Every structure is written in C-alpha cells, then in structure tokens.
Records
---
Amino acid sequence: MSSVLQAIRSRDVRSLDINPNHWYVIGRSSEVKNQPVQVTLWKQAIVVYRDRNGEIQALEDRCPHRQVKLSHGKIIGDQLECAYHGWRFNNQGECSGVPYLADNQKLPSCKIKVYPVKEQDGFIWLFPGDVETQNFASPNFASLQQQPMGVPEWNHLNYIATVSIIKCQAHYSYLIENLMDMYHGHLHLNYQAWAEAALENIKEDDNRVDVLYTAQSYYKIDKIWSISQLFFPALRRLHPEPLNVSYIYPHWMSTLGSDFKIYCLLCPINETETKAYLIHFTSLNAFWRLHKLPVWFRRFLKNSLFGSAQKLLDGLVVQDVKMIEEEQIAYLENPQRKNYELNKALVSVQRLMKNKVEKMEE
Ligand code: FES
Ligand SMILES: [Fe+2]
C-alpha cells in the first residue's frame, strides 16, 4: 500500500473531506427568488441566482476585479452585476461588461468558476466536482451525467411533506451516523417517533449502505383522520414495522413501514459545520377513496397539509443537533479518545465515507 493510501486509511473520519463528484443540495427552490443568494458548500463560496427565464445559475461568489463577493450585486437580465464597480458576468463566468470601459480598452478576459446546477423536486442540486465537461472519458464527467438522487414524493399527490433545516456545528459524519443508528430512539422517547429498534441486516456497496431494523412504530396511517396522530399522542398505538435506513452517498433516506418516508439532503459546509434538509413524508397511499377525487382537490389537500409534522420534525432535530454538536466539541477537545461503538452499521458507514474520499485521491 502506498504511503498516501496508508495515511488516508488511518485518517480520522471527523476531518474527512467530501467526495465532490456527487450532486449536493444547496437550498430549497423557494429560497432563490430575484436576488443573488450566497451559499457555502464545502468551503466554496457560491452565488446562486435566477436568470430572466427563471433558470438557476451558480457561479463562484468572487468578483475577479477586486475579489469581493458577487452575491452583494444585482441580477440584470441574464447577467450578474457586481455591487462595487458594476462589472457584469454572464452564466459562463466571463466578464461581459464594464460600465467605464474606454474605447481603446478590451473587456478583461477574467473567468470565474461555473457550477453545474439543477432544480429538481423542490430543491437546488449542485455538482461541486471539478468537471472538464468536454472530457467525456473523465470519471467525473460520468458522475456529472448521473441524475441527482431526487425526492420523487415531493410532487406526488399521495405524500404530505414537512421540511426542517438542520444547521449543526459538526462534521457531516456525526449527522450521518446519528441518522443510521436507530438505537438512538431513546433520545426521542417524548416525541414517540419509534421504539425497540433491533438491527437485522446490513447491505453495502461502493455507493450506499442499507440497514434494516425491526422496530415498533407509534403511528398507523390507515384512515384519513389518522393524520391527527401527528398532533394527539393519545391516538398512537405501538405496533411492529420494518425500519429501513440508507446512506446513499452523500444523502440519507429512511422508511418506517409504508406510512412514512424521510430524506436528509446534505450540504456539508466545512469540517465543523453542516447544513442539511430533512424532509418528512406522510403517505396517503392507504386511502384509495381519496385517489378517485379530482386532481385539483388532491393538490389542494396536499398543499393544505404541508408542514403537518413540523412540530415533531423540528423537535427531533433540536434533540439530535444537541447531541451531535456535543460529540464534535468532545472530539475537538480530545481527538484521540476512542468511542465504544456496538452498532455495526456505523462501521459500514464510516467505511463508505472513507472509501469515497480515498477513491478520489487514488
Ligand atoms: S470589485 Fe467587482 S466590479 Fe470592482
Ligand atoms: Fe434522531
């Protein structure tokens, strides 16, 4: 084994880089309107805006003239205008106008980085990998051609969505391990999310880790009024349901029986800060009568019930973030201290994270 590889193998997962050759989520579609928006994805400052057709564009958030942030500027048609001296940039990252350019001067040939970006299922997905888009043989190009993971339930009429934003001062590995370790239902007992998880099976390949737990769920969504279980604990009854959790690099997805599906879409900011979007779906699949109603009514119902699990979801996030941030603090105080982990799923998850970074550096 080369010494570089050896160094990576022994590298601490808490200071691990990301593999940038994947689609990450930098925001919700609704967060980008008619002003440039500044986002950070793994230490890269990015400005996101909509051009005159409403198409999302993403550029490096840096004016090449004096290195200030382009996100302080304005959108003029299809161009982004810097706040300082009014230089303009097109969606190729090229300078397309300088307001005081003399007749005998040429436009500067400066160019800033352009990011592949897509809007899909209510979210903005960005590919931070360094892609030479003309190089079809490059493995990065192949990853770029893959579609973002997506959230197919987002527009589906049978699913009611709730979104909660996770902002935690911790490395992304702590968040993923929290999401994959269903033994932490203990922390959420007052929210009655799930109980008695027991690991049944782990499957892993180069891109994902799928873990099956058996568990008890408090919720059964089989009548239209069952949704009120989200608000009234007295209506909940424990019953067994399979609990699947998957780390589909770099995101996470889970199902509890057939009533609930949850996604966590990641935007790692740096080694000690992570943003993520948690999306909870309650399924209306069991109500076949509902499916016969006109589409406009079903859409109205879906939109009216949007956010119905907000209190539950936000409550779970606060509890999780507190634990995750404490883990990070303890790690920074003493990086050598070892954990005593019993859950094999976390070994698989750490292996995938490390392999993803190692492959990139081979
Ligand atoms: S710094 Fe942007 S135009 Fe001068
Ligand atoms: Fe949790």
---
Amino acid sequence: MNKLLALGIGVTTYVTGTLILNITATIIGCESKQIYSQESLEETIAEELPNYYHKKNVKLIPIFNKPMDYDVYGTSRKIDERTFEISALNRAAVRHELEHIFDGHMDRGNLKERKGIQKPLGYLLYQLYYEPKASLHALGIRI
Ligand SMILES: [Zn+2]
C-alpha cells in the first residue's frame, strides 16, 4: 500500500485536480503523536480501537517500522477475511489505516494483488473514495 499511495497521488492529481492532493498534503503536515516503538504502536492502536470495534470483529497484527521504506506514514494489508497487518508512524496514520480496515476498503483484497479489471477499478475507487475518506477520518472528519 505504501507504493500505491505514492502512485495514487499522481493519479489523483491527474484525474481530479488539487482537492485530493491537498488532503494528502494536510495529512503529511498534520501534527500527530509519533509512534517510536512496537509497544507505542500497540498502545496507540489499543487506544483508538474502541471507536471501531462495534463495526467488525477483526484480528490486527501491528508491525512497527514497516512504513519506513517509503515516504508514507502508515500501511495496512489484508491477510485473510479476519486478519490485517497494520503499521503506522503516528496516531493520524493509525486512524487512517483503521478506517481502511474497518470500513471494508480491503474487502475485495489488497489492491496490488487484484487481477484483471478489478485492478484499475480498485485504483480508481481507492483514489476517489477510500483514500480521501481515510485521510479525512485521520483528521477526525467523518463522511
Ligand atoms: Zn490510505
């Protein structure tokens, strides 16, 4: 998802102009409590989880340090129907990834693993709806 996010910024800019690019820039510039260890990641997820648990029962696997390779603050990945990996470098990124997970943005599978028409459709939906929704949610805005 890290790579997809970077690619998505370009695609989104091309398709819709500045709106979503601005949302992304806001998230990147957002002041948010930093996550500096595996324990800190697990703690932050535990603090945010009560806002989501009523929606769906999933198993989360927190992995600290994973987003470091790319220029993003968080990532999540579906392992099976109930299990998701989640990595984040600050609280806003935790909220962003939890929104992806609990709002069903990966119900049809991880974007980069999709085949055929599901791949471009997935990218489009991701950039025009899922990503802005998760980004706004990270700032505390519900749509
Ligand atoms: Zn995202």
